[in-house]
Amino acid sequence: MTATADATESRTYALPERAQRPSAAEGEVWLIPSGDLRESANTESWGAQQELERQVTEAFEAAGARVRRAFEADPEFGHGFIRSQRMGMEVFRSIPTDAPLVVATANWQYSHHVLAGLRTHRGPILTVANFAPEWPGLVGLLNLNGGLTKMGREYSSIWTVDGTDDWFREGVATWARTGALEHDASHVKDLPALADTPESRLGAALAEQLLEDKAIIGIFDEGCMGMYNAIIDDELLNPLGIFKERLSQSALWAEMQTVSDAEADAVGRWLTDAGMTFRLGTDEATELTENQLRWQYKMYIAALRISDDFGLDAVGIQYQQGLKDVCPASDLVEGLLNNLERPEVTSRDGERVLWEGKALPNFNEVDEGVAVDALITNRVWSAMGMDPATTLHDVRWGEDFEGEYVWVYEISGSVPPSHLPGGYAGAEGWRQGPTFFPAGGSTINGVSRPGEIVWSRVYIEGGALHADVGRCRVVELPEAEVTRRKESTNPEWPIASVVLDGVSRDQFMARHKANHAQLVYADSAAAADRALTAKAAMFDRLGVQVHLCGDATVLQS
Ligand SMILES: C[C@H](O)[C@@H](O)[C@@H](O)C(=O)CO
């Protein structure tokens, strides 16, 4: 009997067909927009995106270049954003690999929709945002830039309020001509060798302790909203003595079911007694309700119990995907965890008060750059006897006010109440917007009190961890101006009016490698300088490369 013929004997195989890409045409610039994964956000911000694309197209035409959009808007969806990673990959198949490419961003966008294509694109890349309050294009841009920086892909970046300013138009013309754009970075210097001071000794000692004893950051579902820059690989994280506990938001939801209404309601009573107020209504779809609050209180208790189970040193909840469809947002929980003074929670058996009188550092949107920063800040500030309550803020917008550039830093949900005037008395809970949070939930809304701040950002560049550190002040603006700024952005979110010391708007935008900046108050300007020195020393001893921005100085005697 003869053996059956081998199917591959002919040695002719089905080779994959390769996509035929158009070739780049002289004087042609390609344009793509990256969108949100949430269609509600895409349809609502589509008008703002069209306006930005009009401004960008006009600026390129004035510079003698043509703009070609890589695909048309889809009438079925009612917008022309790239709305998923898959769609991004498909769109990139039609873009010449060596074409000059603009990513225009007028909204909050999910960077991973376009990072796959950008990673292998060979032509020059320009990221552009509208510097406008209503839709956070610049927040999206800063995240994208952080992602490109982490992956080591060269890019240029520019932003504009309305497309008419010379700085923007000249920048576009320069990039169209040369494929590159340099920004002023003269405000940044590397950390000098630190003298032996009480602060440098404290930083080094805390670093040694972390390296020896190690710490765990608990991550309820890693990776939020395509923020590739906010994921720190274990290989970079573990050498700091910090390890991840990977947890699931479904476990959080399950634990929430075990918390009784009575326990949840006690949290609510504590907050009300402390002076916090809530804007309550009855329509679940658009208003904050008692029912939503009760679920948030259950989440607060559940988060602390699970953190206790795993012996966590800091915790983050992904929350914007998955969890937001199941239950009210976690923001209220997150602001409380970061605060020293907060409702008491016991272990399940009622025997132990969890983190009694202490904050459990929380990193919103599971941003691991924030996790490292919050953990270190908590330890330095606690050792110095200062309030360690720290939070990220979105770098949301800014404008001159009476000759000074005042940023709108605005986290998408909550700050620790100690950042507000009068603490809980300065906190008002508003419903999270239905566009992003169908199941609602309360924010911790308010206006951050004036004070001396250390700001920072931990990020990845060149395969290593870096920290930009600087000094700023939260300033008090007239009420009407604060209201205008809040209403131009998201009035349900807490705002900090920030003046950066020695850093201009464009220097900050060009340098910053994330949509988030970390803020913590110090007791005075002198205390802030001392704390900054200790924090820089701790980073330094851990092997994180520290850069001092603007007027930040370290004490050398
Ligand atoms: C709700 C929005 O998507 C926000 O969450 C977004 O702008 C951010 O906060 C990004 O950090």
From TrEMBL:
The keyword rRNA processing does not apply. It comes from the Bacteria. GO terms for molecular function: isomerase activity. Residues 1-11 have a biased composition (Polar residues). SUPFAM superfamilies: FucI/AraA N-terminal and middle domains (SSF53743). Residues 1-26 are annotated as: Disordered. Keywords: Carbohydrate metabolism, Isomerase. The keyword Protein transport does not apply. Coiled coil: none annotated. This is Fucose isomerase. It comes from Brachybacterium halotolerans. The lineage of its organism: Bacteria, Bacillati, Actinomycetota, Actinomycetes, Micrococcales.
